[in-house]
């Protein structure tokens, strides 16, 4: 059965070319082509079925480009690839599960899409993922200088659970030091100065 790919690309020429390259293998089908994500993103995405998304980051306002994958990820946990129609900042590139170039050969494009869509969903979630409410509670305790045992006692958890949550916090934020986590908590208004 073919995997369904949603294309969010403002250029009809690029979208149709990509659609042709994908369908030529019999491995992929284009479920829908959207020229933008204006309006209510959730209403546009929740009625569609797809196994992956290819998006031109230009569909997002300039200030939101660094959160493009997260915006789509809020409504679908499928892989999201960017197509680089114009140069992208490294920070924008890193958030996606893959980056396609207009200069890639069809075989390279297909391989990049295949690689991204073959990764199990559990391993796709990484840095930049939203912290859970419990992880935020633990982060606040860490920022207050508490040790794992103190956190466990305060929140009525086992020390092993606290350690697991701290590993998840580190994985999701990409921050490994207590000082860095404290700055993160301050910047995200989890604690006050």
In short:
The protein has 193 residues and is of the alpha/beta class. The protein is 47% helix and 13% strand. The chain has 2 domains: 122 residues, 3-Layer(aba) Sandwich (Rossmann fold), CATH 3.40.50.2300; 55 residues, Arc Repressor Mutant, subunit A, CATH 1.10.10.
Characterization of the model:
Residues 121-125 have low confidence and may be disordered. The chain starts with a strand and ends in a 6-residue tail after the last helix. With 193 residues, the protein is α/β, with parallel strands linked by helices. The chain is 47% helix and 13% strand. The protein has helices spanning 12-23, 41-46, 68-73, 90-95, 106-118, 121-124, 133-143, 148-155, 159-173, 178-187; strands at residues 3-8, 28-34, 52-55, 80-84, 98-101. Strands 2-1-3-4-5 form a five-stranded parallel β-sheet. Strand 4 (80-84), helix 4 and strand 5 (98-101) form a beta-alpha-beta unit. The chain has two domains: 3-124, Response regulator (Rossmann fold, 3-Layer(aba) Sandwich), CATH 3.40.50.2300; 133-187, Winged helix-like DNA-binding domain superfamily/Winged helix DNA-binding domain (Arc Repressor Mutant, subunit A, Orthogonal Bundle), CATH 1.10.10.10.
